[in-house]
Amino acid sequence: MATPFPTHPLRTAADLAPLLAAIGEARVVLLGEASHGTHEYYTWRTALSQRLIAEKGFDFIAVEGDWPDCFEVNAAIKQDAVTYGTAARLLTTFSRWPTWMWGNWEIAALVEWLHGQNQRRPAESRVGFYGLDVYSLWESLQAVLQYAEQQGDGAITAARQAFRCFEPYGHDPQEYARAVAFVAEDCQDEVTAVLRALRREAGTRAYASLPEREQAFAAEQNALVAVNAERYYKAMLRGGGASWNVRDEHMMETLNRLLALHGPDSKAIIWAHNTHVGDARYTDMRREDMVNIGQLAREQLGRAQVFSVGFGSYQGGVVAGREWGAPLEKMPVPAAPHDSWEAMLHAQLGGDNALLFSSEIRGDARLERAVGHRAIGVVYRPQLEQFGNYVPSLIPDRYDAFAFLDHTKPLHPLAIHAEENGPPDLYPWGE
Length: 431
Known about the structure:
Blueprint: E1 8-9, H1 17-23, E2 28-31, H2 39-56, E3 60-63, H3 67-77, H4 87-90, H5 105-119, E4 128-131, H6 137-151, H7 156-166, H8 173-180, H9 188-203, H10 210-238, H11 242-262, E5 268-271, H12 274-277, H13 293-301, E6 306-312, E7 315-320, E8 329-333, H14 341-349, E9 354-357, H15 358-361, E10 371-374, E11 390-393, H16 395-398, E12 401-404, E13 407-408
């Protein structure tokens, strides 16, 4: 009989104490998920984030979501009064498909907790909530133009020119990418000019407080999103791993900017899929020259400053779509195949949840080869899972710790109508 993996029980928030101890003085904690639609991934990440904020002074949560929508949440939770009605109503801002990723009751509970925390803090130390993603080209352009017109600064002309450049393509960045694929003219110069103009303006102004700096930062971030989104949609049309890298490099650039905004001692919590937070060098992504924020954070900030936690489950249920833009469904998640990482843990634990630490399982012969590790995205077909939803992984190197939740339930989505489909499904796990 094989020697059991060293594990720690995971039943209540108190059981997170060994994980907090292992995190130590890390500046960035990356919290993963094996799907975008599982209740337990959200609730356990919330429990850990609450303890990191309350006990270790973490300054913000940055998620795999669009900057404009997340910044609306960020602004609301930093107000003294509840100006947004209810958390559920506030989260209807997440109207791009898949709406359920951030428009759900689990996030509503986190929003209410964050607002309560912030009401007891001075403005300079209120906990933020930000988006790392790059999809919101049109929304970010609109936000930049609105900001420039309100400020009456030198970025107005550049913002209007960029807006006019994209206007013929409506609200569809994919239509833009198709239109410029085989011609020399595109809108790259226009969006770059907006970013330069905003940075020049920011360099001429002094901001008295973090809230003031944050408003200017948000405008510049929207311009940066527009620059990188323009690159992303063109790369997506070409195929391959280039668009993935544009996206995760943008996430890392955004993280670095947020850390700088909050000061040299700031600390960040990242919520994203395992395929983003688990170091890509220790998966088959490396063969395709794909990187992710988990790898980039370790390389740029230093291994000691970054702590990544993967999440996974053996079976249960999930919220996802059958194809990109399809209505959400609650789907069954079948038992993981016998040779997978999840099946290995299920066989040992017999249905219990557990924490594992890479420092304790490194050197185990069973993990010196890549093992299949489940990855479900927003697009999922349970009957085809074995053909594309397992990422070969060197588990002890991909993560610093792993939270195993044997049986899971679907997320609880809010009723939000998706206004647009967004970019299509590019990868086997539906990311």
